[in-house]
Amino acid sequence: MAAQTDVLIVGAGPTGLVLALWLTKQGVGVTIVDKNSGPGEASRAMAVQARTLELYRQLDIADAVIDAGYKTPAMNMWARGSHRARIPLVDAGRAVSAYPFVLIYPQDRHERLLVQQLHALGVDVHWQTELLRFEEGESHVTAMLKQADGQEVALTAAYLAGCDGARSLVRHQIGSAFEGGTYKQLFYVADVRVTGIEPAGEAHIAFDQSDFVLLLCYGEKDQYRLIGTVRDERAEHPEQLTFADVGHDAINGLNLKISEVNWFSSYRVHHRVTDHFRRGRAFLLGDAAHVHSPAGGQGMNTGILDAINLAWKLAAVVKGKAPEALLDSYQIERQAFARTLVETTDKLFSFVTAQGGLADFVRTRIAPIFASVAYKRASVREYLFRVVSQTTLDYRDSPLSQGRAGEVQGGDRLPWLPGGTADNYDSLAAIEWQVHVYGEAKADLAQWCAQHGIALHVFPWGPAYEKAGVARNAAYLLRPDTYVALADPEADASTLNRYFEARGVVLPA
């Protein structure tokens, strides 16, 4: 292990691995450590959302993840042993993203793929290496690490990224609060072999009074992931639980046979957000910064987007291309989303797990009918896809966001516009500042972009662009993480120049 690095990453789950990948791709030196002996063998997170796949194009790993995962055809809703609704999921967001589906890819497999990708870039995880403590100086952080052989070594880094989970040592040492609470329910997750389920190969959620279970297929014949809650006195001693101890009412209502339990685990779920995502040279990402219920399959994806949001900013500062003030935008942008997400998933989880006759009636009678009818409307399907896929996430209130052109504002995710002569997301595979124009680019804008080394992508105007809400001939300046930084209807080169000057960001050339 080197004695010095640009960024020390503590925790080699998906969040830490993605941060390491994006930093390495941008030429930033990283050291990534984890106290475990290797990638996880268990998996709670199952879904990879469309926004994550869009950003995975920057490392050319989106196709590999899709090939390794499983596109869920539909979600089936059951209540008290009866099939109540089937909601198709394939192509739910076909007008929103090139990845209009729900992809199931267990976290343990996902982590191993990310480790392999990082190794291909010349970086290996230092397993069985634990952060003991750290001290911050004026220009660096000195961390004391305990290696597998028990030896303690010091490492100096410009910045420290805490991706070390809900019990984060980094969060405790910087004194960040972690307000929220813990759900009384005890969750379980099991990897099982199932026969008799119909339709096979699809997702199923079943309710039976206060008991519920979620059944997910991940592409292998008869192999499913079961997620549910443990109730009553059995939850008081989770260390003694086996699969035979959990409630089976909802499971039995699916009319299936579980022939084999390959793996079983139980865990508590929290809903918390830290008050500081950054303190000096230390940052918190993923579960170290926010935890919430698994409703909607958002947790792992949120941590990954934390990492990508921070990575380009750290790279700019480490390379002397931006002032340290740029790093303040990380908390502003990600904390607001985390708080909204915790509130949303909390409401959904409370609905699913609420006890009582009225709650049971709504879940088993009203909800399936409403879901089946609502999902027949294209507008409802698209709205739900946007919410779950995290494609609605914007940074409009960020100090890095400016302007409006058409319906697109600074801080928005750039609309995916495949209706023209080219896919406008192809250029987003590059981790760099770039400008998009839909229509014709002014000569002075083209000259300014060429002079400053910023790629200019011009897309001939078409009806699809107008329908999507982009303004004709406007300039859209895109950040390295592909969000709109500046939307200028006048496409004025001087406006772009002032944008960079005001934020102290050095232009590429």
Automatic annotation (TrEMBL):
<feature type="domain" description="FAD-binding">
    <location>
        <begin position="4"/>
        <end position="344"/>
    </location>
</feature>
<dbReference type="InterPro" id="IPR036188">
    <property type="entry name" value="FAD/NAD-bd_sf"/>
</dbReference>
<keyword id="KW-0285">Flavoprotein</keyword>
<protein>
    <submittedName>
        <fullName>FAD-dependent oxidoreductase</fullName>
    </submittedName>
</protein>
<dbReference type="Pfam" id="PF01494">
    <property type="entry name" value="FAD_binding_3"/>
</dbReference>
<dbReference type="InterPro" id="IPR050641">
    <property type="entry name" value="RIFMO-like"/>
</dbReference>
<keyword id="KW-0274">FAD</keyword>
<dbReference type="InterPro" id="IPR002938">
    <property type="entry name" value="FAD-bd"/>
</dbReference>
